[in-house]
Design a protein that fits this description.
752 residues, alpha/beta, Aconitase, domain 3, Aconitase, domain 4, seven-stranded mixed beta sheet, seven-stranded mixed barrel, 32 strands, 19% strand
Length: 752
């Protein structure tokens, strides 16, 4: 049972929930009693807790993002890494088809670690978040990562996943600026059944809180007696999935098991007991009775599309039909995806692939449980196959020494190295019209690597490793872990970091500026971006009215990321799976701005500017003083990855603004701001707005200086105009200056 409180709560002595309406405690004072408040207070560089300026203890990036981050920081004047900065190579190790792109980027990362004093983790050694759990997460710390699943709350660390621009600020010894976030209690009670795993609990929570935005941009603070019924490895598996709730960060109370985990990882000094004060106030509460959670499945195309496996089977045909309808909308008639044809004659669902891996699935206890389920069994020699990716070499080697990998391989399962590929479409891509069950983090449309525009479509359902293993033992027939009675016998984990000592380069505090960065031919500098002008003219390059637009749609993952270090090359894939004409339209608008910068006004704009000059007050407008850029309309963009490429690709194509109803996540909005993209909201509905419409926004620099709640604008047709009203939600003074400068790079250059 999961219950959401419709009011704030006070937590007394860490265990007693008192609804706000039934309490006499001082709310403002009790807000200071949360674990999250204490940690943020200790990392706040301002004198105002309402407006935080955070400096982090360490940072982490993977190989989709670190080249761009370092290039941006270099262009902004960085001389060394002022804090531990871990660069892993866990995302694109297998991505490129031919060529030297991947190793070129990896050697750039190694050379940057030497030059600036960083920490470099070579390919196949560890996935980013497991390495940070093993080596950097500790009680009371804060960590910033350029991956959205940067979550180490179960180890007492408040971690935040943001776009590369925010990491650049830390490298420049600037701060992460944010208003004090609300804190929501996640009260764990009871004890989970042995056949229930961390993914089951995570999916059950996501189902309840995602669509209603209950924890959006807030901190989830895990409290309650249920925490001590599960070990830290298990907690990590729940914690990493909090990203899919759209929360800002997470934090857990700590206990002796947390202490044991850190001790086993040779970091006993990083432990301290974290509990809320005797009276702590939370803006809401998610009450979870762990004993009531059952094995879950999140059907395509979102982690919140979750059902109990028993519930799915009770309503199999209607639920599968609903999913097929969603698939038809995604493919827009260009591909065919079916599920009903995978229902067996006795009413069971046959799946074609299983994957256990990454930061959520590839943990020690998950793989041990999978080995128990498959010992002495076979997955069969038909279509279904199973791949397992241990999350790090230390996890891999301990599983190997205990014989678990042999048990898995004997069953027919494939053991891979540490790699995040299946999570974002660069490994184990299912066959066309196949469905994969995965203990990974996401199952967004086409994230597994399918290409509906080319007639290729598959899909992913999320499940816990235990139920995936039960399914594998049943030859691919979807099976709940509850049907097996072999769970819970997990031998103690023994951490051995010899592989890290052998291969990881740690140059923190030892930069060597004599070292040269190693550039491959695909590593390109960021193109020059112009400063914002007083007035701007936008042209609508795409209009997306889907309920939510993910960052995977804005810039597809998978093999496109081979161009991750080539801004213009990567930009060619922007919105390619959602609106294939977007790039062409944006580039044609960029051409108009380039002509303006050369002192010419395109003849195609003559009637547009004549219409603008018919508006009172703009009769004498000089077209050469009006910046021209593309604009994307989307109802709710930005759910998903922290990769800033979703914004930077728009910008290098000439994007100057987004118009939305709301932003799905703070991190995508922050990415847009850091890349000089104005984060407009539209008052009312976009009925009058069409693709290729021009929008004139006058006095925008003045508005950024003064009021943001009412920004007059005009849809411009060749012989008429339609007034509209835009607005921008609160921004920091620095964010306003970044937009005026045209990008974070320009802003930092201007400060030098």
């Amino acid at each position: 049972m999961i219950k959401l409180y419709n009011e704030g709560i006070f937590l007394k002595d860490g265990y007693t929930i008192i609804p706000e309406s039934q309490s006499h405690y001082d709310k403002n004072e009790a807000k200071k009693g949360t674990i999250a408040y204490h940690i943020m207070n200790n990392h706040n560089m301002s004198n105002n807790m309402e407006h935080l300026r955070i400096k982090f203890d360490s940072m982490a990036s993977h190989d989709i993002t670190y080249v761009g981050i370092i290039q941006t920081a270099r262009a902004s004047g960085m001389k060394k890494f002022p804090l531990p900065y871990v660069m892993t190579c866990c995302h694109n190790s297998l991505c490129a088809v031919g060529g030297t792109i991947n190793d070129d980027d990896h050697l750039f990362g190694l050379s940057a670690a030497k030059k600036y004093g960083g920490i470099y983790v070579p390919p196949h050694i560890a996935v980013i978040h497991q390495y940070m759990r093993e080596n950097f997460a500790g009680c009371g710390k804060m960590i910033l990562g350029s991956d959205s699943h940067t979550r180490y709350g179960a180890l007492g660390t408040m971690a935040i996943g943001e776009g590369g621009g925010e990491l650049v600020k830390q490298l420049l010894e600037d701060t992460y600026d944010i208003d004090l976030p609300d804190v929501i209690a996640v009260y764990l009670d009871g004890k989970p059944h042995p056949w229930v795993g961390p993914h089951d609990i995570a999916l059950a929570i996501i189902r309840e809180v995602f669509k209603n935005g209950y924890v959006k941009n807030k901190v989830m603070e895990f409290v309650g007696p249920g925490i001590s019924t599960i070990d830290t490895d298990y907690r990590n598996g729940i914690d990493v999935m909090t990203t899919e709730t759209t929360c800002l960060s997470s934090i857990w109370r700590t206990d002796e098991d947390t202490h044991d985990y850190l001790k086993e990882h040779h970091r006993e000094a990083d432990y301290r007991t974290l509990n809320p004060d005797c009276i702590a106030y939370y803006e809401g509460c998610v009450y979870v009775d762990l004993s009531t959670i059952k094995p879950m499945i999140a059907l395509p195309f979102h982690p919140s599309h979750a059902y109990e496996i028993d519930e799915l089977y009770e309503n199999l045909i209607p639920i599968l039909k609903e999913t097929e309808e969603a698939a038809a909308k995604i493919s827009e008639g260009k591909a065919h995806f079916t599920l009903l044809d995978k229902v067996t004659s006795d009413g069971k669902l046959m799946v074609q692939q299983g994957v256990i891996g990454g930061c959520s699935g590839g943990t020690y206890s998950n793989i041990v449980e999978a080995a128990h389920a498959l010992k002495g069994k076979t997955i069969g020699n038909d279509e279904f196959y199973l791949s397992i990716y241990p999350s790090s070499q230390p996890v891999y080697t301990d599983l190997d020494r205990k014989g678990f990998l042999a048990d898995l391989m004997d069953s027919g399962a494939l053991i891979r190295s540490a790699f995040c590929g299946p999570c974002f479409g660069a490994g184990d891509i299912p066959a066309n019209n196949a469905i994969s069950i995965r203990h990974n983090t996401r199952n967004f449309p086409n994230r597994e690597g399918s290409k509906p525009g080319q007639g290729q479509m598959s899909a992913v359902a999320l499940m816990d490793a235990r139920s995936i293993a039960a399914t594998a033992a049943n030859g691919g027939i979807l099976t709940s872990a509850e049907h097996l009675d072999i769970w819970g016998d997990i031998p103690e984990y023994h951490y051995n970091d010899r592989s890290y000592q052998s291969r990881v380069y740690n140059g923190f505090n030892h930069p060597d500026n004599t070292k040269e960065l190693r550039y491959g031919p695909n590593i390109k500098d960021w193109p020059k971006l112009g400063a914002l002008t007083d007035h701007i003219l936008l042209k609508t390059a795409s209009k997306i009215e889907d309920e939510v637009t993910t960052t995977d749609e804005l810039i597809p993952s998978g093999e496109t990321s081979s161009y991750r270090s080539n801004p213009l090359g990567l930009a060619e894939f922007t919105l390619s799976r959602r609106d294939p004409l977007y790039v062409q339209r944006s580039k044609s608008i960029r051409d108009l701005e380039q002509q303006r910068c050369l002192g010419h006004t395109s003849k195609s704009l003559e009637n547009i500017f004549n219409t603008i000059k018919s508006i009172k007050g703009f009769e004498a407008l000089n077209p050469l003083e009006v910046e021209i850029g593309s604009v994307l309309y989307a109802n709710k963009p930005g759910d998903g990855s922290a990769r800033e490429q979703a914004a930077s690709c728009q910008r290098v194509l000439g994007g100057l603004a987004n118009i939305t109803q709301e932003y799905a996540t703070k991190r995508y909005r922050s990415n847009c701001i850091n890349w000089g993209i104005l984060p407009f909201h539209l008052k009312g509905q976009p009925d009058n707005l069409k693709i290729n419409d021009y929008i004139f926004v006058p006095n925008i620099k003045e508005k950024l200086t003064n009021s943001l709640d009412n920004i007059p604008a005009y849809i411009i047709r060749e012989d008429s105009y339609i007034p509209i009203s835009l607005y921008i939600l609160d921004m920091t003074d620095n964010e306003k200056e970044i937009l005026k400068a045209g990008s974070l790079i320009n802003y930092n250059r201007n400060k030098q």
